[in-house]
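Example record used in the benchmark description.
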Amino acid sequence: MNESLLIGSANLGKAHELAALLEGLPWEIVSLRDFPDIEAPEETETTFEGNAILKARYYGDALQMACIADDSGLMVDALDGAPGVFSARYAGADADDEANNQKLLDALEDTPWHERSARFVCCAAFYKPGEAVHVEQGEIVGHIAVSPFGGNGFGYDPLFVPEGHEATFAEMEDAEKHAVSHRGQAFKKMRAWLETRP
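Model output (structure tokens):
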């Protein structure tokens, strides 16, 4: 029987995406839906790497199993890198994707098209109790659209157009997005590292 690997994310959209990116590995992929009583940790770190490690260690130690977690976010140049590590709670602690997207559009309302450059960053962390944490990163540059487009994905996907493309992440099929996205890059590296483990 394969060893369990927990996806340490309470975000259902992200958990689904990570499960797809890890599919086919010799692990039994489990999610936090299998452990409804565990509370999410407070993300107190100031970097994506710090929060990814925090979450992986928290869930891994609490459930005594291998855990993979990520922290990712959008950094907009015209907003001095905001929303950054606060991407998921940009419009408030209980904000949904629509509220976060609207706050971003409002913040960029007077920003011309050529100054709406941004990048998505993802840091993935693997932790198994008793072992050191392993970290991988991915990044994709692009720009912020003037209004949301597409119904796929989650988070800021309807607003982010990756460089070299005319469609937002939310207009892309999953496979097309995974091939270029920050999370796809980070987990491609993580997957390759996991495949080298005994």
